[in-house]
Amino acid sequence: MQTASLKIGTRGSKLALAQAYETRRRLQEAHGLPEEAFEIVTMSTAGDRIQDRALSEVGGKGLFTEEIERALKDGDIDIAVHSTKDMPTSLPEGLHLSVFLEREDPRDAFIGRTVKRFIDLPEGAVVGSSSLRRQALIRRFRPDIKIVLFRGNVQTRLRKLEEGEVDGTFLACAGLRRLGMADVITEVLDPVAFPPAPGQGAICIESRIGDARIDALLKPLAHRETQIALACERAFLSALDGSCRTPIAGLAKVDGDKISFSGMILTPDGTRMHEISAEGAATDAALIGADAAARIRKAAGEDFFNGWA
Ligand SMILES: NCc1[nH]cc(CCC(=O)O)c1CC(=O)O
């Protein structure tokens, strides 16, 4: 029996599995190997098990990655496939996000039950979301809307919507596309007015630093523009000390040798907001993101971060 040359770790949600299958398909194509050369190892994480509280209350993004990162360090798996936007900016020692696959649509989608467009929701309508960024943006435009905590996987959220628990919800276009469910989208949000989370829409691969065999296997999967855009967005997030309690948005675009970036920070109640934009050479992506963070921090003032933290 042929043993797998690479073990791919992933969470077990439909979206996580779709991302792991996509990664496997790209690995097969790049190396002309059969499916059996890559084993998908499904893992349950604390984040998947805790369903009744907001993530920001129980420990944040790390809850979805701890078990998987332990397996990666122990050599039980060789790579882990994640949604970049779910990844903390600092990773356990010895691990890194080595490869970013070509990005899907980074924008947010509105899924309305009674109206198509978010802005057309009636006064006092109920919207489901547990993302602090989306909550702050919703409140910024429509302080009258009632927001209910909406955790669980994409399917669970859409079922709650169908059952009438809420009038609408927001999800990433990318996730819905990967699940083959883009037809539920009733409005694609303008990324200037309703900017996405840093990293949204991009699959990343986490691996051990200095593992030459794995690096060689992964190399053909790296998508240049996405790698550069994500270096900028994650530098912005990291310099703002992006915790789950800070509504932060940011999106970079790479065009040839140039990069442009726009970022936003908001207070959770949506009443205060700062925007920043930056441009420069693609080779300076991380510097541009970090500099944009320093400038937006200065423009906002320290009380912006301390007032409600
Ligand atoms: N936090 C859950 C999560 N993580 C990544 C995605 C979507 C896919 C992506 O951004 O790549 C989603 C669901 C959503 O926000 O709709």
Automatic annotation (TrEMBL):
It is an enzyme of class 2 (transferase). It holds the Pfam family Porphobil_deamC. Its cofactor is dipyrromethane. It catalyses: 4 porphobilinogen + H2O = hydroxymethylbilane + 4 NH4(+). InterPro entries: HemC (IPR000860), Porphobilin_deaminase_cofac_BS (IPR022419), Porphobilin_deaminase_N (IPR022417), Porphobilinogen_deaminase_C (IPR022418), Porphobilinogen_deaminase_C_sf (IPR036803). It comes from the Bacteria. Its EC number is 2.5.1.61. Keywords: Porphyrin biosynthesis, Transferase. Residues 6-214 form the Porphobilinogen deaminase N-terminal domain. The keyword ATP-binding does not apply. Tetrapolymerization of the monopyrrole PBG into the hydroxymethylbilane pre-uroporphyrinogen in several discrete steps. Belongs to the HMBS family. Monomer. This is Porphobilinogen deaminase.
